[in-house]
Design a protein that fits this description.
The complex is a heterodimer. By secondary structure, chain A is mainly β. Helix content of chain A is 0%, strand content 52%. Chain B is mainly β. Chain B has strands at 4-7, 10-13, 19-25, 32-38, 44-51, 57-58, 67-73, 76-81, 90-98, 106-109, 113-117. Chains A and B meet through strand 5, strand 6 and strand 11 of A and strand 5, strand 9 and strand 10 of B.
């Protein structure tokens, strides 16, 4: 069955702490991988994406993610979080070369305290 | 970047009435759009794929007669919730892929529509 698993439902950090959010997927075939962010009261925004090539992907606002094919993982990282990073983060997977019919993880709520 | 809009952003209706939600791709054409439903504090659940010029395809468990989808043009898809009931209250989000080339579609999401059925 196709699925996306995000291990942390709630994460609380202080400013300047490092962040790593886990994402594992189960999906047949070649995939595209995404991280989306949803700030309070706002719509989903693309943070970064992986289609092919370098498995270390850099996105906006200092975020990066690493695709480890052998582990079916696509973990999101940021070396130093800010209060403005408080949001909900969704990992998503879709078929490579298709219409990107995405399957989302349950999301991780990140709260950053000043 | 690509922009997707939705209208209305918020709607309150009485039980038994129908509600139409519009999804527009503002600066690009989309032969395919997707409709999601997001329950409070939960992830997005894909409801259906809207196809311009053909019938929508629905995910398992989604009632096609209740959630009518019409892809009227290359920039507009509508979702009509027919005979709405309180359990249909939810946040409905559409998305459209903007092609970056073969196999590199990226989904852009609308801001969502909050439906409350009384």
């Amino acid at each position: 069955a196709q699925s996306v698993s995000q291990h942390n439902h709630h994460v609380i950090l202080s400013e300047a702490a490092s962040l790593e959010l886990g994402c594992n997927y189960s999906y047949g075939g070649t995939v595209n991988l995404f991280w989306y962010v949803q700030y309070p009261g706002q719509h989903l925004q693309l943070l970064l994406k992986y289609f092919s090539g370098d498995p270390l992907v850099k996105g906006i606002k200092g975020f990066e993610a690493e695709f480890i094919k052998s582990k079916f993982s696509f973990n999101l990282r940021k070396p130093s979080v800010q209060w403005s990073d408080t949001a909900e983060y969704f990992c998503a997977v879709g078929p490579s070369g298709g219409y990107n019919k995405l399957i989302f993880g349950a999301g991780t709520r990140l709260a950053v305290h000043p | 970047g690509a922009v997707v809009s939705q209208h209305p952003s918020r709607v309150i209706c009485k039980s038994g009435t129908s509600v139409k939600i519009e999804c527009r791709s503002l600066d690009f054409q989309a032969t395919t759009m997707f409709w999601y439903r997001q329950f409070p504090k939960q992830s997005l659940m894909l409801m259906a794929t809207s196809n311009e010029g053909s019938k929508a395809t629905y995910e398992q468990g989604v009632e096609k007669d209740k959630f009518l989808i019409n892809h009227a043009s290359l920039t507009l898809s509508t979702l009509t919730v027919t005979s709405a009931h309180p359990e249909d209250s939810s946040f409905y989000i559409c998305s459209a892929p903007s092609s970056g080339g073969a196999g590199t579609d990226t989904q852009y999401f609308g801001p969502g529509t909050r439906l409350t059925v009384l």
